[in-house]
Amino acid sequence: MRMLVIDVLARSTGKRYSTHDVVGAGPRVVAGMLSEKYDTLLMPYEKVMGSKDVVRSATHIFLSAMSSDKGALGKVVGYIRRVNPSAVITVGGPVGFEYGELLKRFDIDYVIVGEAEIPLQRFMECIVEGGCSKHEVPALGFRDNGVVTLTTRHMHTPSDVLSSIKPWTRIDEMLDYPQVYRVYVEAVRGCSNFMRPMVGSIGCIFCGNCRSSMNEERVNCPANIPPGCSFCSVPSMFGPARSRSVDSIVKEVEELIEHGARRIVLSAPDILDYGRDLLVNGPLTNPCNPPANIEAIEELLSRLNALKPVSQGRVVVMIENIKACLVNDEVAKILGKYLPGTTVHIGLETGSDVYNDKVLGKPIKVADVVNAVRLLKKNSLRPYVYLMHSLPFASGKIYEETLKAVNELGGAGVEKITLYKYTPLPYTAFEKIPPEERGVEEWIARLKAVVRRYNTMQKKEILGKHVEAFIIESNGRVYGYPVKHGPVIFLGRIARRGLNGCLVIVEVTGARYRYVKGRIVRIKECPPAS
């Protein structure tokens, strides 16, 4: 039997509009589990479309996608059915929670709902090997005599099981130039924020459970409002934060490096949740208490930094998201010690503390974020901040406070402000509430203009500077991806070919809102000719 795992994440309708250099953690977990028993191949969406021999050879095909990827999902399922009608097609990833729609809309066989580790093990025993009934596979959706059936609700994988799984690391078999990509390595699964919006119109009865000092009590909501920030599905889908062991993470990073990875991102809804679950009894459901587990974070980062390719600077380790309420001077110093020059993202969403807390269920204050930006900047990190527009129940006053917060963030030295539009997602408190722009159109326009102006100004700050970047050629154009992340560098059309995968020094020569322009100053290193 031949297993094919296809990464459809962030492909939208069939093309990536952002995060072009990302390799997600989820598909690698699935491929790793399958490869323990079967001949398995992991491929990105782009490579599969047109790879008829690979698709024809697969007996079972697994697709990982998000809700926003249904267009691409439909295309790849159609392609598989044309090329290999007998293949067993299983869909998973965040989109799996919409199993009813998927099974009705697409010609697929199964949907694994939620985290895959436990259901996939049983799937292999019952369906791949035929040792038991499909009804015995937990969290599995399928059509039973034309009726959509779900065997059990989704389940959360315990941390010891997370640490026992060996994810796929042979990225040189799936990517032509693995050194270019940010390869995400899961450090924490789930989120520690189990607060909920206190909004009567969505059913809140103001019982106070989700703001209790008892972690277990925060899990239960008599009104059945999904936990976490009202726009985010992570707590519902993936449960409370659980950390993988240091040994399992370090081993995975070592193997990825052996297979060509040069840019590693420690994946977590909040990397500062790492090891906090070890400080509490029961589930970790409070986003700000207890404080960050400094010892656990330093052990992880120091062990990774001790790897020779990392200590020599040939491999970069990065992080992505943190909660501002967990940042203090000690945390910032530890991050700066091991991750200097890397970006770090902080969610703020609006400039109103009351709105963030009561309406979004997000206990993050503007002062928390401004302080975090200052501390991270002081310790040689590059803070980015997320803001949102078109949120439900956001009045002109909320936007006015957000504009004020932009000025405060600018004064603190934030490198970039990422402003994005609220989109309702399944398994969130606001899943049935559409974006709201009526009556605040002018405020949204002002906020967009201010953020655009600030980000353009920040990009102009790096004019003339030299940046290390990896090169990718696409459709006759050349792009540079900064080693430690940052804006994509457009290098235009270059007469010389064969720069794909090369590490170069680029001088930044121009700045735009979404990108910068540059020229290659020096080629540091190129992959050996195949």
From TrEMBL:
Q: Which cofactor does it need?
A: [4Fe-4S] cluster
From the Swiss-Prot or TrEMBL record, give the protein name: Radical SAM domain protein
Residues of the Radical SAM core domain = 206-465
Q: Which InterPro entries match?
A: BchE-like (IPR051198), Elp3/MiaA/NifB-like_rSAM (IPR006638), rSAM (IPR007197), rSAM_horseshoe (IPR023404), rSAM_sf (IPR058240)
Pfam families given in the database record:
Radical_SAM
GO terms, molecular function: catalytic activity; iron-sulfur cluster binding; metal ion binding
User: Which keywords does this Swiss-Prot/TrEMBL entry list?
Assistant: Iron, Iron-sulfur, Metal-binding, S-adenosyl-L-methionine
